[in-house]
Amino acid sequence: MTTYPLPATGLSGRLGRLRAATRGRWVVLGSGMVVGLVVLTALCAPVIAPYAPDAVDPTAVYQGSSPAHWLGTDDTGRDILSRLLHGARPSLVAPALVTLIAGVAGTALAVSAAWLGGWYDRLVTAFLDIVFGFPGLVLAVVAAAVFGAGLQIAVLTLSVAYLPYIGRVVRGAALRETRLPYVSALRMLGMPGSRICLRHVLPNLLPLVLVQVVTSFGYTLLDVAAFSFIGLGAQPPTAEWGLMVAGGSTGILAGRPEQSLYAGVVIVVFVVACNLLGGALSRRLLGETR
Fold it and tell me: Where would you say this protein principally sits, based on its record (predicted)?
């Protein structure tokens, strides 16, 4: 005889239901608060920073934490906290532009390829596969050799490099979406293909696009920081997190790792928060749409 477990009752049952209802929400809340705090810092940096980011004080070189400089100073006497706060804006704007360009272009290519099919689909797929085979760092080196170093070149290069990460995933979902019965019904009713894609197919793909963009944002920030670290992105004396890590390398040898350490910690925390937020959104948005 088969027996079935009885539903939990009392305090333990209520606690179990509460854990089930809030499972994953704390991850979304915590990671979202970290991302939101960094974005708010980037917007309010000129107001909340205690010093100008490029204010040099030769008498305060390599000072430790103090009431005047909460996180200490760098090799030229600049306040590290002020540079971290001001560096949030270029460190976030560049990845935001990359994910925006790659997200829009990758989604447009994916949906159009899935809808038109044929030689156009094969051409788009081959293009995405070719770009996927080249690391973004290699593309950046080639672009810098041709056009020169700078944050704008890094943004354009990374936008091309991240096209496959969004386009390949969205194309697979778009192929499944365009084969659903409701799309065939709309075609039989004579609705134009562009209208079907814009009003029906694309809105159903937006949760997947959002997850891909949020997850890619953290990795893009890491790549932008790496470009600045090797001298291909932001240029001195710009306050930018990757450039701060590179600029603090001399301080590490002198026993003053604060500049590189604090900038590196901020980058790692933000990237981890983006990954957790993207994973949580994937479970909640995509899980609910399947």
Answer: membrane
- Name which of 83, 96, 94, 62 is nearest 237 in CA terms: 83
Nearest to 229 by CA among 177, 264, 256: 264
Between CA 250 and CA 218 the distance in angstroms is: 27
Domain ranges, residue 273? 34-43+73-289
- Record the pTM: 0.83
Give me the number of domains the chain comprises. 1
Rounded distance between C-alpha atoms, residue 208 and residue 212, angstroms: 6
DSSP helix/strand/coil, 51: coil
Neighbouring-strand partners of residue 73: 79
For residues 171-198, average pLDDT: 90
Report if residue 176 sits inside a domain: yes
pLDDT at residue 262 in the model:
93
User: What is the pLDDT at residue 19?
Assistant: 54
Whether 232 contacts 153, CB under 8 Å: yes
When pLDDT is cut at 50, 70 and 90, the band that residue 238 belongs to is confident
Establish if 163 belongs to a structural domain.
yes
pLDDT the model gives residue 290: 44
